[in-house]
Design a protein that fits this description.
With 454 residues, the protein is mostly helical. It has a domain at 18-84 and 97-342: Hydantoin permease (Orthogonal Bundle), CATH 1.10.4160.10. The protein is built from 20 helices and no strands. α3 packs parallel to α9 and α7 (157-185) packs parallel to α11 (232-265). It is globular and about 65 Å long. It is a multi-pass membrane protein. GO terms for molecular function: cytosine transmembrane transporter activity.
Protein backbone atom coordinates (compact mmCIF):
# COMPACT_ATOMS: atom_id res chain seq x y z
CA UNK A 1 0.00 0.00 0.00
CA UNK A 2 1.50 3.27 -1.12
CA UNK A 3 1.93 6.01 1.35
CA UNK A 4 -0.67 8.74 0.86
CA UNK A 5 -0.73 11.96 2.85
CA UNK A 6 -3.78 12.77 4.93
CA UNK A 7 -4.84 16.40 4.94
CA UNK A 8 -4.50 18.28 8.21
CA UNK A 9 -5.88 21.80 8.16
CA UNK A 10 -3.39 24.63 7.90
CA UNK A 11 -3.44 27.83 9.95
CA UNK A 12 -5.00 29.67 7.01
CA UNK A 13 -7.84 27.14 6.82
CA UNK A 14 -8.73 27.50 10.50
CA UNK A 15 -11.25 30.29 10.04
CA UNK A 16 -14.19 29.05 12.14
CA UNK A 17 -14.80 31.35 15.10
CA UNK A 18 -16.32 30.51 18.47
CA UNK A 19 -19.66 31.80 17.19
CA UNK A 20 -19.39 29.64 14.06
CA UNK A 21 -18.94 26.45 16.09
CA UNK A 22 -21.53 27.51 18.63
CA UNK A 23 -24.06 28.17 15.84
CA UNK A 24 -23.09 25.00 13.98
CA UNK A 25 -23.86 22.79 16.98
CA UNK A 26 -27.03 24.64 17.94
CA UNK A 27 -28.15 24.25 14.33
CA UNK A 28 -27.12 20.60 14.30
CA UNK A 29 -29.62 19.88 17.09
CA UNK A 30 -32.18 22.62 16.40
CA UNK A 31 -33.93 20.45 13.86
CA UNK A 32 -36.79 18.14 13.10
CA UNK A 33 -35.05 15.00 14.35
CA UNK A 34 -34.46 16.55 17.78
CA UNK A 35 -38.07 17.68 17.94
CA UNK A 36 -39.16 14.18 17.00
CA UNK A 37 -36.93 12.64 19.69
CA UNK A 38 -38.65 14.89 22.23
CA UNK A 39 -42.00 13.62 21.00
CA UNK A 40 -40.94 9.98 21.27
CA UNK A 41 -39.70 10.29 24.87
CA UNK A 42 -42.94 12.05 25.83
CA UNK A 43 -44.11 8.52 26.61
CA UNK A 44 -42.07 8.76 29.83
CA UNK A 45 -43.98 11.82 31.06
CA UNK A 46 -42.81 15.43 31.18
CA UNK A 47 -40.76 15.36 34.40
CA UNK A 48 -38.92 12.08 33.81
CA UNK A 49 -38.27 12.81 30.14
CA UNK A 50 -36.95 16.32 30.93
CA UNK A 51 -34.53 15.10 33.62
CA UNK A 52 -33.14 12.34 31.43
CA UNK A 53 -32.90 14.70 28.47
CA UNK A 54 -30.62 17.04 30.42
CA UNK A 55 -28.51 14.33 32.11
CA UNK A 56 -27.88 12.28 28.97
CA UNK A 57 -27.25 15.44 26.94
CA UNK A 58 -24.57 16.68 29.33
CA UNK A 59 -22.88 13.27 29.55
CA UNK A 60 -22.94 12.70 25.80
CA UNK A 61 -21.66 16.13 24.86
CA UNK A 62 -18.75 15.97 27.27
CA UNK A 63 -17.64 13.19 24.94
CA UNK A 64 -18.36 15.47 21.96
CA UNK A 65 -16.12 18.15 23.48
CA UNK A 66 -13.32 15.59 23.89
CA UNK A 67 -13.66 14.41 20.28
CA UNK A 68 -13.80 18.04 19.16
CA UNK A 69 -10.54 18.70 21.00
CA UNK A 70 -8.93 15.92 18.97
CA UNK A 71 -9.86 17.65 15.71
CA UNK A 72 -8.64 21.01 16.99
CA UNK A 73 -5.33 19.53 18.17
CA UNK A 74 -4.52 17.49 15.05
CA UNK A 75 -6.39 19.27 12.23
CA UNK A 76 -7.56 15.86 10.99
CA UNK A 77 -11.13 14.73 10.28
CA UNK A 78 -12.90 12.37 12.67
CA UNK A 79 -12.61 9.30 10.48
CA UNK A 80 -9.02 10.13 9.61
CA UNK A 81 -8.29 10.02 13.34
CA UNK A 82 -9.79 6.52 13.67
CA UNK A 83 -6.81 5.24 11.68
CA UNK A 84 -4.71 5.59 14.83
CA UNK A 85 -7.01 3.39 16.90
CA UNK A 86 -8.52 0.97 14.35
CA UNK A 87 -5.52 0.86 11.99
CA UNK A 88 -4.87 2.53 8.65
CA UNK A 89 -7.07 -0.01 6.85
CA UNK A 90 -9.24 -0.89 9.84
CA UNK A 91 -10.60 2.67 9.95
CA UNK A 92 -12.85 1.64 7.07
CA UNK A 93 -15.12 0.00 9.68
CA UNK A 94 -15.99 3.15 11.70
CA UNK A 95 -16.03 5.18 8.47
CA UNK A 96 -18.65 2.85 7.01
CA UNK A 97 -20.73 3.12 10.18
CA UNK A 98 -20.50 6.92 9.97
CA UNK A 99 -21.56 6.99 6.33
CA UNK A 100 -24.59 4.81 7.11
CA UNK A 101 -25.69 6.64 10.24
CA UNK A 102 -25.38 10.18 8.87
CA UNK A 103 -27.15 9.21 5.67
CA UNK A 104 -29.83 7.78 7.97
CA UNK A 105 -30.10 11.03 9.94
CA UNK A 106 -30.27 13.04 6.71
CA UNK A 107 -33.08 10.77 5.51
CA UNK A 108 -34.90 11.19 8.84
CA UNK A 109 -34.82 14.99 8.65
CA UNK A 110 -35.70 14.91 4.98
CA UNK A 111 -38.78 12.78 5.59
CA UNK A 112 -40.07 15.08 8.36
CA UNK A 113 -39.45 18.18 6.23
CA UNK A 114 -41.09 16.46 3.24
CA UNK A 115 -44.16 15.95 5.43
CA UNK A 116 -44.21 19.72 5.98
CA UNK A 117 -43.96 20.33 2.25
CA UNK A 118 -46.78 17.82 1.78
CA UNK A 119 -49.03 19.88 4.07
CA UNK A 120 -47.99 23.10 2.29
CA UNK A 121 -48.69 21.68 -1.18
CA UNK A 122 -52.14 20.50 -0.15
CA UNK A 123 -52.87 23.89 1.41
CA UNK A 124 -51.63 25.99 -1.52
CA UNK A 125 -52.96 23.76 -4.31
CA UNK A 126 -56.22 22.96 -2.55
CA UNK A 127 -55.71 19.20 -2.78
CA UNK A 128 -58.17 17.01 -0.92
CA UNK A 129 -56.87 15.08 2.09
CA UNK A 130 -56.95 11.51 0.79
CA UNK A 131 -54.42 8.63 0.48
CA UNK A 132 -53.58 9.43 -3.16
CA UNK A 133 -52.83 13.14 -2.68
CA UNK A 134 -51.05 12.45 0.64
CA UNK A 135 -48.78 9.94 -1.09
CA UNK A 136 -48.11 12.16 -4.11
CA UNK A 137 -47.45 15.31 -2.08
CA UNK A 138 -45.02 13.41 0.17
CA UNK A 139 -43.04 12.18 -2.84
CA UNK A 140 -42.88 15.75 -4.18
CA UNK A 141 -41.72 16.87 -0.73
CA UNK A 142 -38.86 14.37 -0.65
CA UNK A 143 -37.68 15.41 -4.11
CA UNK A 144 -37.87 19.14 -3.29
CA UNK A 145 -35.90 18.64 -0.06
CA UNK A 146 -33.25 16.64 -1.87
CA UNK A 147 -32.73 19.44 -4.39
CA UNK A 148 -32.40 21.94 -1.53
CA UNK A 149 -29.80 19.69 0.14
CA UNK A 150 -27.79 19.36 -3.08
CA UNK A 151 -27.69 23.15 -3.34
CA UNK A 152 -26.78 23.63 0.34
CA UNK A 153 -23.82 21.23 0.32
CA UNK A 154 -22.45 22.17 -3.10
CA UNK A 155 -20.01 24.68 -1.56
CA UNK A 156 -18.74 22.25 1.10
CA UNK A 157 -17.70 23.56 4.53
CA UNK A 158 -18.40 27.20 3.56
CA UNK A 159 -22.04 26.42 2.79
CA UNK A 160 -22.47 24.80 6.21
CA UNK A 161 -21.15 27.91 7.91
CA UNK A 162 -23.45 30.31 6.05
CA UNK A 163 -26.50 28.09 6.35
CA UNK A 164 -25.98 27.94 10.11
CA UNK A 165 -25.35 31.69 10.44
CA UNK A 166 -28.59 32.61 8.68
CA UNK A 167 -30.65 29.62 9.73
CA UNK A 168 -29.98 29.87 13.44
CA UNK A 169 -31.61 33.32 13.63
CA UNK A 170 -34.80 32.10 11.97
CA UNK A 171 -34.76 28.95 14.10
CA UNK A 172 -34.59 31.00 17.32
CA UNK A 173 -37.54 33.13 16.19
CA UNK A 174 -39.56 30.04 15.28
CA UNK A 175 -38.90 28.17 18.52
CA UNK A 176 -39.81 31.23 20.58
CA UNK A 177 -43.07 31.56 18.68
CA UNK A 178 -43.77 27.84 18.96
CA UNK A 179 -43.15 27.94 22.72
CA UNK A 180 -45.64 30.78 23.16
CA UNK A 181 -48.30 28.94 21.12
CA UNK A 182 -47.89 25.67 23.03
CA UNK A 183 -47.97 27.19 26.50
CA UNK A 184 -50.87 29.47 25.58
CA UNK A 185 -52.98 26.57 24.32
CA UNK A 186 -52.29 24.21 27.23
CA UNK A 187 -51.42 25.42 30.77
CA UNK A 188 -48.11 24.11 32.06
CA UNK A 189 -49.77 22.41 35.04
CA UNK A 190 -51.81 20.28 32.61
CA UNK A 191 -48.62 19.26 30.80
CA UNK A 192 -47.09 18.25 34.14
CA UNK A 193 -50.16 16.29 35.18
CA UNK A 194 -50.43 14.34 31.91
CA UNK A 195 -49.26 10.70 31.81
CA UNK A 196 -49.58 8.20 28.98
CA UNK A 197 -51.57 5.02 29.27
CA UNK A 198 -49.67 2.16 30.92
CA UNK A 199 -49.19 0.33 27.61
CA UNK A 200 -47.46 3.40 26.09
CA UNK A 201 -45.02 4.22 28.92
CA UNK A 202 -41.32 4.16 28.05
CA UNK A 203 -39.04 2.85 30.85
CA UNK A 204 -36.08 5.00 31.93
CA UNK A 205 -33.45 2.72 30.44
CA UNK A 206 -35.14 2.79 27.05
CA UNK A 207 -35.31 6.60 27.14
CA UNK A 208 -31.59 6.76 28.02
CA UNK A 209 -30.67 4.46 25.12
CA UNK A 210 -32.81 6.47 22.68
CA UNK A 211 -31.22 9.75 23.76
CA UNK A 212 -27.72 8.24 23.80
CA UNK A 213 -28.09 6.93 20.25
CA UNK A 214 -29.22 10.36 19.11
CA UNK A 215 -26.53 12.34 20.95
CA UNK A 216 -23.54 10.08 20.34
CA UNK A 217 -24.02 10.33 16.59
CA UNK A 218 -22.58 13.84 16.72
CA UNK A 219 -19.50 12.73 18.66
CA UNK A 220 -18.24 10.91 15.58
CA UNK A 221 -18.48 14.12 13.52
CA UNK A 222 -17.08 16.64 16.02
CA UNK A 223 -13.54 16.74 14.61
CA UNK A 224 -14.86 17.38 11.09
CA UNK A 225 -15.71 20.91 12.22
CA UNK A 226 -13.33 21.66 15.10
CA UNK A 227 -10.38 21.07 12.77
CA UNK A 228 -11.31 24.38 11.13
CA UNK A 229 -10.87 26.47 14.29
CA UNK A 230 -7.72 27.78 15.97
CA UNK A 231 -9.49 28.25 19.30
CA UNK A 232 -9.43 25.49 21.90
CA UNK A 233 -12.36 27.12 23.70
CA UNK A 234 -14.40 27.17 20.50
CA UNK A 235 -13.68 23.50 19.89
CA UNK A 236 -14.57 22.36 23.38
CA UNK A 237 -16.66 24.81 25.43
CA UNK A 238 -18.67 26.38 22.62
CA UNK A 239 -19.29 23.05 20.89
CA UNK A 240 -20.48 21.55 24.20
CA UNK A 241 -22.78 24.49 24.94
CA UNK A 242 -24.16 24.75 21.41
CA UNK A 243 -25.01 21.06 21.16
CA UNK A 244 -26.71 21.05 24.57
CA UNK A 245 -28.70 24.22 23.94
CA UNK A 246 -29.94 22.92 20.60
CA UNK A 247 -30.79 19.51 22.08
CA UNK A 248 -32.56 20.64 25.25
CA UNK A 249 -34.38 23.51 23.58
CA UNK A 250 -35.76 21.66 20.57
CA UNK A 251 -36.35 18.30 22.25
CA UNK A 252 -38.22 20.07 25.06
CA UNK A 253 -40.44 21.82 22.52
CA UNK A 254 -41.08 18.48 20.81
CA UNK A 255 -41.81 16.93 24.20
CA UNK A 256 -44.24 19.63 25.33
CA UNK A 257 -45.88 20.00 21.90
CA UNK A 258 -46.55 16.26 21.73
CA UNK A 259 -48.04 16.25 25.23
CA UNK A 260 -50.06 19.39 24.39
CA UNK A 261 -51.43 17.63 21.31
CA UNK A 262 -52.31 14.58 23.41
CA UNK A 263 -54.09 16.78 25.99
CA UNK A 264 -55.93 18.74 23.29
CA UNK A 265 -57.07 15.64 21.38
CA UNK A 266 -57.40 13.48 24.50
CA UNK A 267 -55.32 10.85 22.74
CA UNK A 268 -51.58 10.06 22.68
CA UNK A 269 -50.06 8.57 19.54
CA UNK A 270 -46.25 8.55 19.20
CA UNK A 271 -46.73 8.32 15.43
CA UNK A 272 -47.91 11.94 15.60
CA UNK A 273 -44.72 13.16 17.30
CA UNK A 274 -43.11 14.64 14.19
CA UNK A 275 -43.14 18.46 14.07
CA UNK A 276 -45.00 18.72 10.77
CA UNK A 277 -47.98 16.74 12.07
CA UNK A 278 -47.96 18.63 15.39
CA UNK A 279 -47.75 22.02 13.64
CA UNK A 280 -50.70 21.07 11.47
CA UNK A 281 -52.78 19.73 14.40
CA UNK A 282 -52.06 22.82 16.51
CA UNK A 283 -52.98 25.09 13.61
CA UNK A 284 -49.63 26.88 13.37
CA UNK A 285 -49.99 27.51 9.64
CA UNK A 286 -47.78 27.47 6.55
CA UNK A 287 -45.07 29.71 8.03
CA UNK A 288 -44.33 27.15 10.75
CA UNK A 289 -44.08 24.43 8.13
CA UNK A 290 -41.65 26.52 6.07
CA UNK A 291 -39.38 27.00 9.09
CA UNK A 292 -39.44 23.22 9.66
CA UNK A 293 -38.15 22.86 6.11
CA UNK A 294 -35.39 25.38 6.93
CA UNK A 295 -34.32 23.52 10.08
CA UNK A 296 -34.02 20.34 8.05
CA UNK A 297 -31.66 22.08 5.65
CA UNK A 298 -29.49 23.47 8.47
CA UNK A 299 -29.24 20.10 10.22
CA UNK A 300 -28.64 18.11 7.06
CA UNK A 301 -25.80 20.40 6.04
CA UNK A 302 -23.95 18.92 9.04
CA UNK A 303 -25.23 15.35 8.49
CA UNK A 304 -24.25 15.26 4.84
CA UNK A 305 -20.87 16.91 5.48
CA UNK A 306 -20.08 14.22 8.08
CA UNK A 307 -21.22 11.39 5.79
CA UNK A 308 -19.27 12.77 2.83
CA UNK A 309 -16.13 13.22 4.94
CA UNK A 310 -16.35 9.60 6.14
CA UNK A 311 -16.81 8.40 2.56
CA UNK A 312 -13.59 10.11 1.49
CA UNK A 313 -11.75 8.19 4.23
CA UNK A 314 -12.95 4.92 2.64
CA UNK A 315 -12.25 5.97 -0.96
CA UNK A 316 -9.05 8.00 -0.75
CA UNK A 317 -9.19 9.37 -4.31
CA UNK A 318 -12.74 10.67 -3.92
CA UNK A 319 -12.98 14.45 -3.45
CA UNK A 320 -15.32 15.94 -0.83
CA UNK A 321 -17.79 17.64 -3.20
CA UNK A 322 -18.64 14.53 -5.28
CA UNK A 323 -18.75 12.54 -2.02
CA UNK A 324 -21.39 14.98 -0.72
CA UNK A 325 -23.45 14.53 -3.88
CA UNK A 326 -23.24 10.75 -3.57
CA UNK A 327 -24.39 10.61 0.06
CA UNK A 328 -27.19 13.11 -0.66
CA UNK A 329 -28.56 10.97 -3.49
CA UNK A 330 -28.33 7.82 -1.35
CA UNK A 331 -30.14 9.64 1.49
CA UNK A 332 -32.88 10.58 -0.97
CA UNK A 333 -33.38 6.94 -1.92
CA UNK A 334 -33.48 5.83 1.74
CA UNK A 335 -36.07 8.51 2.56
CA UNK A 336 -38.57 6.56 0.46
CA UNK A 337 -38.39 3.50 2.79
CA UNK A 338 -41.10 4.74 5.22
CA UNK A 339 -43.25 5.67 2.21
CA UNK A 340 -43.39 2.13 0.85
CA UNK A 341 -42.12 -0.32 3.49
CA UNK A 342 -43.07 0.60 7.08
CA UNK A 343 -44.31 3.45 9.25
CA UNK A 344 -41.87 6.27 9.96
CA UNK A 345 -41.88 5.53 13.71
CA UNK A 346 -41.08 1.83 13.15
CA UNK A 347 -38.26 2.68 10.74
CA UNK A 348 -36.89 5.36 13.07
CA UNK A 349 -36.84 3.12 16.16
CA UNK A 350 -35.06 0.34 14.24
CA UNK A 351 -32.50 2.89 13.04
CA UNK A 352 -31.89 4.16 16.60
CA UNK A 353 -31.40 0.63 17.94
CA UNK A 354 -28.83 -0.07 15.25
CA UNK A 355 -26.70 3.04 15.69
CA UNK A 356 -26.90 2.91 19.49
CA UNK A 357 -25.52 -0.60 19.42
CA UNK A 358 -22.67 0.28 17.04
CA UNK A 359 -21.64 3.81 17.99
CA UNK A 360 -21.13 3.51 21.74
CA UNK A 361 -18.31 0.92 21.54
CA UNK A 362 -16.70 2.70 18.59
CA UNK A 363 -16.58 6.02 20.47
CA UNK A 364 -15.22 4.35 23.61
CA UNK A 365 -12.27 2.98 21.61
CA UNK A 366 -11.78 6.26 19.73
CA UNK A 367 -11.52 8.35 22.91
CA UNK A 368 -9.68 5.95 25.22
CA UNK A 369 -7.00 5.40 22.57
CA UNK A 370 -6.19 9.10 22.20
CA UNK A 371 -6.60 10.40 25.74
CA UNK A 372 -5.36 7.42 27.77
CA UNK A 373 -3.24 5.07 25.66
CA UNK A 374 -1.61 7.60 23.32
CA UNK A 375 -1.46 10.45 25.88
CA UNK A 376 -3.12 13.01 23.57
CA UNK A 377 -0.53 12.68 20.84
CA UNK A 378 -0.98 11.29 17.32
CA UNK A 379 1.64 11.45 14.59
CA UNK A 380 -0.38 12.85 11.69
CA UNK A 381 2.21 11.87 9.10
CA UNK A 382 1.83 8.23 10.18
CA UNK A 383 -1.95 8.04 9.71
CA UNK A 384 -1.59 6.68 6.17
CA UNK A 385 1.87 5.13 6.39
CA UNK A 386 2.19 1.49 5.41
CA UNK A 387 4.19 -0.37 8.09
CA UNK A 388 4.12 2.80 10.18
CA UNK A 389 3.06 3.55 13.73
CA UNK A 390 -0.62 2.79 13.10
CA UNK A 391 -0.25 -0.13 10.72
CA UNK A 392 -0.57 -2.78 13.49
CA UNK A 393 -1.18 -6.14 11.72
CA UNK A 394 -1.52 -5.68 7.97
CA UNK A 395 -3.24 -2.33 8.48
CA UNK A 396 -5.78 -3.53 11.08
CA UNK A 397 -5.74 -3.11 14.84
CA UNK A 398 -7.46 -6.33 15.84
CA UNK A 399 -7.47 -5.29 19.49
CA UNK A 400 -9.84 -2.44 18.52
CA UNK A 401 -11.97 -4.50 16.14
CA UNK A 402 -12.43 -7.39 18.60
CA UNK A 403 -13.11 -4.98 21.47
CA UNK A 404 -15.71 -3.25 19.33
CA UNK A 405 -17.36 -6.62 18.62
CA UNK A 406 -17.42 -7.45 22.34
CA UNK A 407 -18.96 -4.04 23.04
CA UNK A 408 -21.74 -4.64 20.50
CA UNK A 409 -22.39 -8.09 21.95
CA UNK A 410 -22.53 -6.68 25.48
CA UNK A 411 -25.10 -4.10 24.37
CA UNK A 412 -27.32 -6.83 22.95
CA UNK A 413 -26.82 -9.03 26.03
CA UNK A 414 -27.58 -6.25 28.52
CA UNK A 415 -30.82 -5.40 26.74
CA UNK A 416 -32.16 -8.84 27.64
CA UNK A 417 -32.48 -7.81 31.31
CA UNK A 418 -35.48 -5.80 32.48
CA UNK A 419 -33.36 -4.26 35.26
CA UNK A 420 -31.21 -2.59 32.58
CA UNK A 421 -34.08 -1.47 30.36
CA UNK A 422 -35.95 -0.10 33.37
CA UNK A 423 -33.02 1.83 34.87
CA UNK A 424 -29.69 2.67 33.21
CA UNK A 425 -30.04 1.43 29.65
CA UNK A 426 -27.33 -0.57 27.91
CA UNK A 427 -25.41 2.07 25.94
CA UNK A 428 -23.12 3.60 28.54
CA UNK A 429 -22.45 0.28 30.32
CA UNK A 430 -21.44 -1.25 26.98
CA UNK A 431 -19.10 1.70 26.42
CA UNK A 432 -17.36 1.15 29.78
CA UNK A 433 -17.00 -2.56 29.01
CA UNK A 434 -15.52 -1.79 25.59
CA UNK A 435 -13.05 0.74 27.01
CA UNK A 436 -11.86 -1.75 29.62
CA UNK A 437 -11.49 -4.62 27.15
CA UNK A 438 -9.64 -2.42 24.67
CA UNK A 439 -7.24 -1.08 27.30
CA UNK A 440 -6.39 -4.63 28.37
CA UNK A 441 -6.13 -5.91 24.80
CA UNK A 442 -3.67 -3.19 23.86
CA UNK A 443 -1.28 -4.41 26.54
CA UNK A 444 -0.70 -7.50 24.38
CA UNK A 445 0.21 -5.59 21.21
CA UNK A 446 3.73 -6.38 19.93
CA UNK A 447 6.34 -4.07 21.44
CA UNK A 448 7.42 -2.86 17.99
CA UNK A 449 4.03 -1.13 17.56
CA UNK A 450 4.58 1.07 20.59
CA UNK A 451 8.19 1.72 19.64
CA UNK A 452 7.09 3.15 16.32
CA UNK A 453 4.53 5.40 17.94
CA UNK A 454 7.03 7.15 20.19
Amino acid sequence: MAKQAIHATTTAERSMSSWDLFATWIGANANNGTWYIGGVIAAAGLVTASKLLILVGIGSYVLLALASYMGYKTGVSAMGLTRASFGVKGSILPSLINVIQFIGWAATNTYIAATSISFILKEVLGWANNPTTNHLSLIFGILIMSVLHLISISLGECSVRWIERVGIILVIIFVTWESIVVFTMVPFKELLAWHPAAKSILPNGKVIDILAAFNLAWVTAAADFSRFTSSKKAATTYSFLGANIGLIWFAFIGLTATIATAVTLNHFDPNNADPSTIAAKLGLGVLALLVIVLTSTTANAVNLMAAGSALTNIFHKLKLTPALWIVTLIATAITFIPVYVASFLTTFEAFLDGIGMLLGPEIAIFLIDYFVLKHRHYQVDQLTAANGAYWYRHGYNWAAIISWGIGVASYLFLNQFSLITQTTGATFIAMFITAGVYTLAMQFQPAVTFAKEK
